[in-house]
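Write out a sequence, fold above all:
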Amino acid sequence: MAKKCPLFKKPCLQHECEWYMNVSGHNPQSGDPVDQWGCSINYAVLVGLEANKDARAHRDTVQGLRSDIEKRGQVHDQVYGALLRFVPRLLSGNSDGSGRERIERQQRE
């Protein structure tokens, strides 16, 4: 039995049709190699599913990178906060924080 065209409901013209194409790659469900000819209209669903799978993988990768950057930002904030508290005390030579006034005075001069 001849295949029918999904657009025109007539017998498939195969290689004479502009929509007839070769698909090669791997079956996403079984992993088996695929190399077959068929109508691109019929393959559109498979291509859409594959694109969706790739988009989810990219989304997960971006989410992982975002989490890493957020953690590094939190560490940066903690280190910066500690430095803001520690540097004035270090410059003043005491631990009461009075070195801040000296730093501000030096910056104005």
User: Anything to note?
Assistant: Helices lie at 40-92, 99-108. The radius of gyration is 33 Å. Residues 14-108 form one domain.
